[in-house]
Each structure stands twice: as structure tokens, then as C-alpha cells.
Amino acid sequence: MPDPKPETLNPKPETLAAGCVAVVVVYGPPSVALTVFMLWYSDAYTAVLHAALDREKCLDVKILNGAARGFQAHHDYPLAGAYTRSLQSSA
User: Fold this and answer.
1) In this predicted model, what pLDDT tens digit does every residue of 7-29 receive, in sequence order?
2) pTM over 0.70
3) CA gyration radius, the chain
4) In this structure, are residues 38 and 30 in contact, taking their beta carbons and an 8 Å threshold?
């Protein structure tokens, strides 16, 4: 199966912003409680994901191998994601 195109994984910021504005216009702004919960949940989720995928044992799990390898590469190349996705697309 071919890898998905990078542009499908990283939508343009203006596309994402337009989608957020459309949701707020159609449904109204989210409640403060929901916003606080969403921030807490996303932080907790990324913490668990980071802790799990950073373990070398994940490399032995076939379904997680590719994601774990890519995720662990950020230790060797900490700025690679920023330079290859964000900075080049805005240039």
C-alpha cells in the first residue's frame, strides 16, 4: 500500500482555520467546560501516546512498528518535522 501524500496528512492552516470558523458559525462556540476538557484530554492523550511509542518494545509489535520508528526518530532529528512540514510549506 503506498504511503499517503504528505499534503493529505498536513492540511494547510487556512483550510483548518476555515473549518474551525465554519463549525463555530454553524454550531456556536463551545462551552468553557468543554474547552477545558478538550485541552486536558488532548494533553493526556499525547502524554500517553508519547510514553507508549517512545518505548523500544513498541518496535517489536508489528502493527505499531512503523509509527514507533517514526516517532522515536524525533530524538535523533528533533527539528526534522518542523523543517520538512511547516517551514517548507510556508516558503
Assistant:
1) 556 677 788 889 889 999 999 98
2) no
3) 17
4) yes
pLDDT in tens, 15-65: 888 988 999 999 998 899 999 999 999 999 999 988 888 888 888 989 988
Whether residue 40 is found in the same domain as residue 65: no
Q: Which residues of 3-39 are buried (b: 16+ CB within 10 A; e: fewer)?
A: eeeeeeeeeeeeeeeeeeeeeeeeeeeeeeeeeeeee
d(CA 43, CA 64): 21
> 59 and 33, same structural domain?
no
* Chain position carrying cell 507508549: 52
If asked whether residues 48 and 59 sit together in one domain, one would say no
Q: Is 10 helix (H, G, I), strand (E, B) or coil?
A: coil
CA 88 to chain centre: 18
What does 45-70 look like in DSSP terms, one character per residue?
HHHHHHHHHTSGGGGGSTTTHHHHHH
